[in-house]
Structures are given as C-alpha cells and as structure tokens.
C-alpha cells in the first residue's frame, strides 16, 4: 500500500512499488481525458493485453483542441481531426483496431463543468452497457488536471448503468509533473503497483511518437501552444507503468 507515500504525490516513491501481472481475456476499456493520455499512461498495458488477444476498447473524452488554441494553420476543427488521427495511429501500433476507438469529443478544458457531466452521463452509461468492460483503466482521481478528475467522475457515474462492478485501475499523468502534483492526506485506501512492460516498451515509444502535434514543433504558429517536454515524456517511456487501485 502507499500509505507512506501520500502527503506529497503518490508517484514520489514509485520505484518502491511492487510489480503485478496483468492478464485478461475479458473486455477491457481504457478511458482517456485527452487524445494521447491512453498511450502515455497505459500504452504498455494496452500492448500486453492485445498480445494476449484481450479485447481492448478506448474511449477518448475531450476533443483536445485547446493544445494550440491560437494556431491559424490548425484551427479547432482541423486540430481535432489531426489529434484523432494521431490517436488511431498510436493505437494501431499498440494492436487496437480502429473500430474499437470512440471519440466523445467534449470541449477540451470544459469537461469538468456540471452541465457537461450531467449531459453526457447517460451517453457514457449506454456506451459502457454496450461493451460491458470487466476492467476499466481511467485517470487518477486526484490528477492535477481538472479534465482528468472530471473524466474519473464521469466514468464513475456512468458505471451505475452496468449490472456489475468492473475492476477500476487508475493511472497518473500530471502527477508526474512536480510543479503540478498535489498533496494528499494520509490514506490506506489506495494501493499502488507497477506493471512490467519491458517486452512492449519499444511499441509504446513508437505509439507515443505518433503524437507529433504534442511532442514536436509540427504546429509552429502558436507561441503558447502545448508541448510535452522531454523530462515529462521520460516518465512514460520507462520499462514499467504505475497504477493505483482503491481497496474495497
């Protein structure tokens, strides 16, 4: 358990976390707040599951158009299409068929509004009923980014549409950024573990490279545009991934 790690960030002591295996032949869903979070946080898990022919679906919540809001070369509709294609390319590399990827296209940066959450709860619930995932990967509930926290909330509310309770596995993204990571009260309710992805880490790195709009100067006409730094990317190209689960 991570009781000794909380109080700062749950990823602080990640090197001390135990390794666990991950095998399943039952449907798995990976939920991404933005196009790229699924690959950054869970790319290794996705690749391993697909190597064992586990059915994996991916639900991308926001349209990702706020990464470069002032670009004239890539206005919002063009950027949305670009980021969707990057996602499809990345997931193809990881072994996920394009037909298993769904884009909800909520407004980037506004997923956390109550109106948005209420409006799309039923839509997400119907989606969950259709694919009936036995395991759901979703963003860490305390991620510093409000869209990530709202995605966790949206998925949790939509789970009520299922007749069973799936296993929920949470993955950190912005908690890896020391300038954004949040302090938490001590708790024994969350356990943390690592997944060994050495066998597929090269696939994950290739998949991350598909997100040229986020890691290169492809979009060069927005001085304030978003770009993942090499330091931040290094957290996602290790031969292991970090996950959290709530102890019931």
UniProtKB/TrEMBL annotation:
Entry superkingdom: Bacteria
Record InterPro entries: GlcNAc_PI_deacetylase-related (IPR003737), LmbE-like_dom_sf (IPR024078)
Gene Ontology MF annotations: hydrolase activity, acting on carbon-nitrogen (but not peptide) bonds, in linear amides
Record's protein name: PIG-L family deacetylase
Native source organism of the sequence: Phormidesmis priestleyi ULC007
Lineage: Bacteria, Bacillati, Cyanobacteriota, Cyanophyceae, Leptolyngbyales
């Amino acid at each position: 358990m991570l009781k000794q790690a909380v109080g700062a960030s749950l990823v602080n002591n990640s090197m001390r976390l135990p390794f666990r295996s991950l095998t399943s032949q039952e449907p798995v869903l990976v939920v991404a707040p933005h196009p790229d979070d699924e690959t950054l946080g869970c790319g290794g898990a996705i690749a391993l599951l697909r190597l064992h022919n586990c059915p994996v679906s991916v639900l991308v919540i926001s349209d990702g158009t706020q990464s470069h809001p002032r670009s004239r070369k890539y206005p919002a509709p063009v950027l949305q299409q670009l980021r969707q294609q990057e996602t499809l390319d990345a997931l193809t590399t990881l072994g996920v068929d394009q037909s298993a990827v769904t884009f909800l296209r909520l407004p980037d940066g506004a997923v956390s509004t109550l109106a948005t959450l209420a409006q799309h709860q039923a839509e997400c619930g119907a989606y969950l009923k259709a694919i009936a995932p036995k395991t759901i990967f979703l963003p860490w509930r305390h991620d510093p980014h409000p869209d990530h926290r709202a995605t966790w909330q949206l998925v949790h509310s939509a789970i009520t549409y299922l007749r069973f309770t799936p296993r929920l596995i949470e993955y950190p993204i912005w908690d890896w950024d020391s300038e954004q990571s949040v302090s938490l009260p001590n708790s024994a309710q969350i356990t943390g573990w690592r997944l060994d992805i050495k066998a597929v880490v090269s696939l994950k790195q290739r998949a991350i490279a598909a997100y040229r709009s986020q890691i290169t100067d492809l979009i060069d006409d927005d001085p304030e545009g978003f770009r993942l730094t090499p330091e931040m990317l290094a957290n996602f190209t290790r031969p292991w991934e970090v996950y959290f689960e709530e102890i019931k």
